[in-house]
Amino acid sequence: MCLGIPGQLVEVYQKDDLPMGKADFGGVVKEVCLAYTPEAQPGQYVLVHVGFAISVIDETEAGEIFSMLAQMESLAESEATEPMNEPPPSSPLPQQSISGPEG
Fold first, then answer.
1. pTM, whole model, 2 decimals?
2. With 0-12 CB in 10 A as exposed, 13-18 as middle and 19+ as buried, what is 40?
3. What would the pLDDT profile of 36-51 be if each residue is shown by its tens digit?
4. pLDDT greater than 70 at residue 100
5. What is the CA radius of gyration of the chain?
6. How far is the C-alpha of 70 from the C-alpha of 9, rounded, in Å?
7. CA 90 from chain center: how many Å?
């Protein structure tokens, strides 16, 4: 499984013979490689994984992903504020006998 984050392209250009762009991730602008999505244009959303735009997505899909990420963040924050439960008592491992070669 990989995590792809949607970013909105704000610029498209060539760099070292590769299609590149700058994508806005909620106010943070990062350079992304568009080799897998050379058709992407400024204003469109791309799904980015480790610096590579792996697909062009529409604004609705980007919004759904943003919503899921916000839910994950909210869940993580609520878990972080809950008191820690005591760990379950550890049970001893079953004893295994190791015997040598018989004969």
1. 0.69
2. buried
3. 999 999 999 999 999 9
4. no
5. 24
6. 21
7. 34
